[in-house]
Design goal:
heterodimer, A: mainly alpha, two-stranded antiparallel ribbon, 6 helices, B: alpha+beta, Alpha-Beta Plaits, 3 domains, four-stranded antiparallel beta sheet, EC 2.8.1.- (chain A), DsrC-like_dom_sf (chain A), tRNA 2-thiouridine synthesizing protein E (chain A), transferase (chain A)
Chain lengths: 106, 426
């Protein structure tokens, strides 16, 4: 466990920089922090659309959506998602959205 | 990083087999973090439990896989393995190397990692064991820019394909496994690097049914070489085997005295279909009844060869037990041409037909073999636009729970109970 300070706010994160208590501590300031560490350029409406889709799905289903479902709900092909989030939907977008770390045989 | 006492591991330096403990101690002389891996491993031997934390998500920009993150749960005691990520490196098909290439790779790993490796992971990748997050991007930069090599796959994607060594040094290869493996690896780079599937998917390519890369057990999509025409028999060489001038199985059983070679006992009577016999001093094969099991060819490689009309069988759906039981791959296409001329277009068509369907209907973390089980082989064959043949089953079903599609049944499913009652009073 570690603590990350950004613009005067602190966040509890794991080794990989995922928020430990998810939506409770998630805010715009967290988004701007992740932007810096995940190689993301200017934050656009498209980024927000992906983040909203992830958070909404997670709130409703308690898990992150499959990549295919994320593409369907946002209308972005996987290629576009990688352009927006260079580390991909798991490490990049889920981290930014405050979702828990993806698990399994990764 | 100091040396740790490792009394349990030290036991594993005894005996004739190459000792990983000895190797790691030697490595620790130049990479002191190896003392910590030995120390943590010793602790695990003592506690009988792993000391790696759960999971780990690290990687390089642009890719969604290729690196397996790992953190110690006792980093204060073993700071050298606080981060201990594993990097999968795409291997050449058939694992042929030049020392120049290996030296290049090891120089790179000396610089950025622990210097410890796994040659190779079960899926085929060369594996670099143990580095820190901040080294990943520089390592990837040098790997791609200086050595022109890439990472392998991990996650819910196409994993690194692998193959037997095929035509490079085996007279039984029925197609060029290395070329297919390389070609499809390049063709599907996007599917390897950016997870887009319901779960992992593996390709393996074997040149013949001996299946030296175990494709039928360890790949979702197995391409296994075979032939359509007759086994080629060199009768003069058969006589040499009978005379005892050529050793059976190329001398594989030379370590024990099994007596004089007996073609009846060791070949003809062991043929699973009993389609071989001797006639006038010549070996005969009824090829129409041969299932191409390879046994006779394996026993008398100098006398018998696969036919000339070569191709492959496609088997789909092998997986380990989780979730609903282990599966070998199921035979889906008995024979397919495997031709460099069309850049394996027909094989690619089959793969994409599977993917198009599985990506749509596969549940989260459901291997394609499980999806096939869930919807049933007849439905899968229909999806694949393959006509069902007797070869698709080992035996017909024994239960009578047979589904019919409505259009196959005269009158369909819409029935009126009142009309029925007119003939059969309640």
């Amino acid at each position: 466990m570690a603590t990350i300070e950004h613009n005067g706010k602190s966040y509890e994160v794991d080794e990989d920089g995922f928020l430990l208590n998810g939506s409770e501590s998630w805010d715009d300031n967290w988004v701007s922090y992740v932007k810096g560490v995940e190689g993301i350029g200017d934050l656009t409406e498209e980024h927000k659309k992906v983040i909203d889709a992830l958070q909404e799905y997670y709130k409703k289903n308690g898990i992150a959506p499959m990549v295919r479902i994320l593409s369907k709900t946002t209308g972005f092909p996987l290629k576009r998602i990688y352009e927006l989030f260079p580390s991909g939907p798991g490490k990049g977008a889920c981290k930014m959205a405050g979702l828990p770390k993806p698990t399994g045989c990764v | 990083m100091a040396k740790h006492d490792t009394p349990l591991l030290d036991e594993l330096e005894k005996g004739p087999w190459p000792s990983f403990v000895t190797d790691m101690k030697r490595q620790a002389e130049t990479h002191p973090e190896c003392w910590d891996i030995l120390g943590q491993l010793e602790l695990s031997y003592k506690d009988k439990i792993t000391h790696w934390k759960h999971g780990g998500i690290v990687g390089v920009f642009g890719y969604g896989g290729g690196i397996v993150g790992r953190y110690s749960d006792v980093p204060h005691r073993f700071p050298g393995v606080e981060h201990f990520h594993t990097v999968r490196i795409a291997q050449p098909s058939g694992l042929y190397y030049s020392t120049k290439n290996l030296r290049g790779l090891m120089d790179l790993w000396d610089k950025y990692g622990s210097g410890m490796t796994n040659m190779h992971g079960s899926t085929g990748d060369m594996i670099f064991l143990g580095t820190r997050t901040e080294n990943l991007e520089p390592l990837f930069w040098d790997l791609t820019h200086n050595l022109e090599q890439d990472l392998g796959g991990s996650g819910s994607n196409l994993r690194t394909p692998s193959c037997c060594l095929g035509e490079s040094r085996c007279e039984w290869a029925c197609y060029d496994t290395q070329d297919v493996c390389h070609h499809l690896t390049m063709h599907y780079q996007d599917e390897i690097h950016r997870p887009a599937f319901p779960y992992k998917f593996k390709f393996k390519f074997s040149g013949c049914p001996n299946d030296c890369v175990a494709s039928i057990a360890r790949s979702d999509f197995a391409l296994i070489g075979t032939w359509k025409d007759d086994i080629r028999i060199n009768q003069a060489a058969v006589k040499e085997y009978i005379a005892g001038n050529y050793p059976s199985n190329a001398g594989a059983h030379a370590g024990r005295d099994w007596g004089k070679f007996d073609i009846k006992k060791e070949v003809i009577d062991l043929c699973p279909t009993g389609c071989m016999w001797m006639e006038g001093g010549e070996l005969k094969i009824d090829n129409a009844e041969c299932t191409r099991c390879m046994h006779c060819i394996n026993v008398m490689p100098r006398a018998l060869k696969p036919g000339k009309e070569k191709g492959a069988t496609i088997c789909i759906g092998a997986k380990a037990p989780i979730l609903d039981g282990a599966q070998f791959a199921t035979m889906v296409i008995p024979f397919i041409e495997v031709s460099k001329e069309n850049e394996y277009e027909n094989v690619i068509d089959v793969i994409e037909q599977v993917w198009d369907w599985w990506m749509e209907v596969g549940k989260n973390r459901e291997r394609v073999g499980e999806t096939m089980q869930r919807i049933g082989l007849p439905n899968f064959l229909r999806v694949m636009e393959i006509e069902a043949t007797p070869q698709h089953v080992r035996e017909p079903r024994s239960n009578p729970y047979v589904f019919w599609r409505e259009e196959e049944v005269e009158g369909g499913w819409e029935r009126d109970v009142v009309a029925f009652r007119k003939k059969h009073a309640a």
